[in-house]
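User: My notes are a mess, but here's the protein and magnesium ion's SMILES. Can you give me a structure?
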Amino acid sequence: MHSDFSNAVWQNPLEAPKPGADPRPAIVFHGVTKSFDIKHTHSLKETVVAAFKRKAISSKFDALHDVSFTVPEGQSIALMGRNGSGKSTTLKLLSGVMPVDKGWIRTRGRIAGLLEVGAGFHPDLTGRTNVYLNAAILGMSKAEVDERFDSIVEFAEIGDFIDTEVKFYSSGMYSRLGFAVAIHTELDTLLVDEVLSVGDAKFREKCFAKIDELQAQRKTMFVVSHSASQVKQLCERGIILERGRKVFDGPIDEAVDFLERS
Ligand SMILES: Nc1ncnc2c1ncn2[C@@H]1O[C@H](COP(=O)(O)OP(=O)(O)OP(=O)(O)O)[C@@H](O)[C@H]1O
Ligand SMILES: [Mg+2]
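Assistant: No problem, the inputs look usable. Here's the predicted complex:
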């Protein structure tokens, strides 16, 4: 599903980038559908009875339906839409933590980010161990983490709590440490799923500054946020999802207007 563009084989030459289009898009979503099962039974008895009657005990629904977009390198995109519209699912597919059911995704370079608060952290391990574990998952070697460890802890402002099990962290501490690890990896695409709403005002400012810095380095970025002012500040393009379907894709100001009108 995920591959490097340098050796990408386009399944259909007609789908290859058109002349004049960005020849090296960072990300391509093509007709992506992701389905989940919804269970209809509430008890073991109901499940057994349904099995005897050969009644379906679950059905599939599309959390994402036939979603396509192309992202040139260095672009910042806000992913917007109501609760349950498929934003987090999109980011999870992008990061490769789950496979698509239909369509395909191409990504180039290293993708890192914070999916949901605490995603990738093990509650029974200390902050320190989690940093190493999380960084390893993001593709960093131990030597690389050793070198950046102090800077990660400093950015997260975790202090002495770094040797405390993360299950005792507040949700703000959790996301600060996760964000700190993500931005200290050598990434090409940063995914930010509502992390900015968890930290306090001071931390948020620091995150914005860091995001600005990454944008200046032409990193590609996906930001999920329910704050219109935040996405206007951070992103140039907005994609709006409605029940798993893409209903708008265009300049951020128009996207915010579209959302306010719908
Ligand atoms: N692992 C899963 N199993 C079953 N259903 C799922 C799973 N993950 C997500 N869903 C469903 O898919 C739909 C889209 O969820 P998603 O988390 O992508 O929404 P979202 O746009 O991020 O919403 P929010 O703004 O609340 O974070 C929801 O109906 C959700 O219940
Ligand atoms: Mg979400």
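The mean pLDDT is 85.
User: Great, I'll file this with my notes.
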